[in-house]
Amino acid sequence: MKNIALLLLVACTTVACRQDASHDEEILWNYYKGFTTSPALCDSLASKSKQEANRNFLLGLRCFEKYEQFDSVSCYDSSRLYFKGLITTHPENYLGYLGMGILLTERGMKARGSDPHHGRFMDSAEYYYARATQQAPRHPAVFYYRGRNQYQRNRDSINIAAIQYLDTATILKPNFFKAIERSAEYLSHYLDLAADPDHHENAKDFKSRFPNLEERVKYLFNQSLQLDNSWHETYQGIARAAHVYSNKERIDFLKTGIAIAKSRKSKDSLSLMRYLANVYFYDLKDYETAASLFNELRLYRELAWISFYNGNDSLAAHYFHQSMKKSQDAETLLDLAHFHRHNHRLDSAQYYLAAARRSDTFPNLEVDFETAKLSVMMDNRKEAEQQLIKLIQTYQEQMGEEAELEEGYQKALALLSWLQSG
How far, in Å, CA of 34 to CA of 171, rounded? Predict the structure, then answer.
């Protein structure tokens, strides 16, 4: 009788543990399915979790969300301690490895503009995602985050693994909205890159692996909207798919996204409105409509270029200086250099290029190339040659073999070849 009672107790305990695990997994999907999550939601989900590992994972995600929003070093360290602790105490559980992967991907994304070696964070993240896959080989969220990391490693290079991981996530969980939506966006972006096969060695391989690509992107975006048509970023993703949708379709989708963002009082409505103005400005060359939208947003740089293209240099100069009052960042200073170069005021162009170069703590490769071009225009060919050699070396040091895929690298190489041949 004692043995039977003991067996019943073990059986009941096993069933209870499985129920707890199933319950906690459902709770975790409240995090996995969303694009943005508040730290407060992580706290709430943690309070409902029955297993210690899940609670600590969610508490680590709470710190991660604070790090993502506020770029706080202490929040990063706290999140890391939670995830590392999970790996130590529960090495058989995928959660600690997944948490470390998510954290390191975010760190790599934040370091992209300031650290030439930001890719090492993505490489470390891939290690942890691989470990998470070993512990949970059929978990859709692991494959989603792994695919996202592959994409973020180098957004200017076609990475088929990113799409393969997202495809696996949607096979394992067919209605996984986030994975479907991101797959559409990534494929659309890769389609843009593949449009110039001279700069992307694997463009042909990419197209051969994904036939009828335009239809596939449309299908995925339509599927995303069927699952959730309230996410404004989907509409912006559709608008960016210039190789898939007509300009009219892109504008209509953008207007829908703007209306949704405004109804939620989201700051993203400003970026969507700016993108709409850019479609009118760059794609349709409808400067009148673009000017109206730029004026509403007080985007003086764009208004300056519209004035310049309309032949009104004095108004262009006015808007450029209005832009300078708002921000003296490298982009604004570079625009002023272009403006003066177009008007053959080369000394002024040189002044603003030097100012742009000083304004960035990290080497600005575009500014360096424009400086070399200006040296050619000012008949300082030897100086231009030295600047280009240094620029090419910088590309190689920062990007290694992938430097050859960069348009700026190819331009610098072509200009240097022309200088040396003449």
Answer: 19
